Amino acid sequence: MRTTRIRRTALTLLIILLIIACFLAPYAWVVASSLKNQFTVFGDVTPLSWRAFVPVGATIENYVSLFERTNILRALLNTAIVATGQVVFTLLLCSMAAYALTRIKFPGANVVFMLILLTFLLPIEAMMVPLYQVVSGLGLSNTLVGIMIPWIASPFGLFLLKQAFEELPAELEDAARIDGAGHVRIFFSIVLPNVKVPMVTLGLITFLFCWNSFLWPLVIVQDPARQIIQVAIAQQGSPTQLPNWGETFAGATVATVPLILLFLILQKYFTQGMATSGIKG
Amino acid sequence: MADVQLKKVGKTYESASATTIDGLDLHIRSGEFVVLVGPSGCGKSTTLRMIAGLEEVSSGEIWIGERRVDELDPRERDIAMVFQNYALYPHMTVAQNMSFGLRLAKVDKAEIRRKVEEAAKLLEISTLLNRRPKQLSGGQRQRVAMGRAMVRDPAVFLFDEPLSNLDAKLRGQMRTEIRRLHKRLKATTVYVTHDQVEAMTLADRVVVLNNGKIEQQGTPQELYERPATRFVAGFIGSPSMNFLPAQVALDGGTLVLRLNNATLPSPADRRDALLPYVGKTVEVGLRPEHFLAGDGEPDLSVPVEMAELLGPTTLVHFTLAGVPCAAMLAPQHAHPEGSQQPLRIAHDRMSLFDPDTGGAI
Ligand SMILES: Nc1ncnc2c1ncn2[C@@H]1O[C@H](COP(=O)(O)OP(=O)(O)O)[C@@H](O)[C@H]1O
Ligand SMILES: [Mg+2]
Fold it and tell me: Considering the domain B4-235, what is its CATH architecture?
């Protein structure tokens, strides 16, 4: 009896460790490779050996040249600005639109909602050309605003928040109206504080989406000084040179750090939000 | 304090095909405790929400005091409302919940504190002021919801089924509490419930609604003793009234009612009204306590199907003229299950209804 239980626990543990390893391996490879020189990066994966994940004779040379030779700090700053702006405006726009669609009854509300959701089905690649025409037509090509503007009206965000608003008891808003609050006050003082978890979720997803976006910024921004991080990493070598893979990996590592920090900070908030947001009906 | 008047108030929801409230006329006097009672879906909440301003009227007028309010925002109507689910703001403390309205009205901070503390003391929730709603029991939440209404000193208090989420014991306690508060504050109150016991115990005046219309209004006693319709008779009172068919006949010049094989003299005060029904069937309404046992010549005898001892009384169940009935008897006069129970009928207290219209005769 006891041995089977121990065996089962060990097996479960093994499976979990395997899954974790599968998830972590690519990151380990990236980080390890960023500490290697150009030759060992590929030498260690053909054939694949444990060396791929362990930088033997580590060097920070890649990082030094990354910060000295390229404008990665500028790109990081641009990304932070764009991502923050995109989060703020997405949250504002989606929450207000979702609230209107949930709580203000007007004929055709469902049709509007369906149409918005339909746009969700279009792949980004299919929208590139028309989006480029519209955004550059607005005079926003080569600007940070141009990078974020097509995405702040997010159908996914609308959908997520609409679900959250629907779960909020309408009596809360009735009570607030009787207490003397108008639409705007109710929205900011009563509704938003009670949908913190979906708001944080949407904020985080938006931030990630923006931080990792590649194709659109590549299309809309040509000036390297206005570029954001993922494109900047890819474009760091001059077109005539072979890419310096060690440096690319170093860039990727640097680009990941802020995301990890953000998750660590919000994770604490997250669990707290989960534990305290129980509204009893 | 103010009186509330509904003048031919109607409501038809846009999404609904039928009229929900149909030409409601109601005058609630200043300081009065009026309970709107009726089955689920009869339009009680709709009526209350129209008074509150949460729902627009489709027709008619609503007056609070000297002002016509049906075009005004809730905040301009000088009302406060307590909801079924309490509707406390989950992210605010008890004190913040209670003071939200005052803070919006930019009342002086010291004044807000004073009012919140005063209301909290009255409701015995002073120690809970810094808690959040989820850290409170159902009864405590209910008190906070009432406190939130009280601090605003409204002209009219509106309650929408405030006790229906509480267990039976707590409900009884809170009922007493609400009554005590009303005695003390003497504020005009409109209270909605589907529970007739609540209506009877709380109200100065009960208004029975059915299908969006007033079926009857009056003091609890009037409704209990002189129901105007069969609907009210069946709705008010627990255990509910027994309805039995009876033949109206003239027996040697006296008007009698033939109920099964019993012959009862007609109630003296309704003899004239009954005359047109001679030869016809009417519906007799008998409350369980209108059956008597003990001394005196019995009117009929019934086989006891079940006897429930309730403590001070025993509820005897039997079938009469094919209708399941219950009689409330003194335990010493109640016969055991399976035996015959002799019964007298308090014929002067019975209700009589026209079987076609359901109206009282
Ligand atoms: N917002 C609404 N839209 C359409 N119909 C409604 C709405 N609210 C209530 N009704 C309908 O109006 C009737 C009365 O409802 P309500 O006033 O809530 O009844 P009660 O409170 O007496 O149970 C019901 O038939 C209900 O379905
Ligand atoms: Mg209701």
Answer: 3-Layer(aba) Sandwich (3.40)
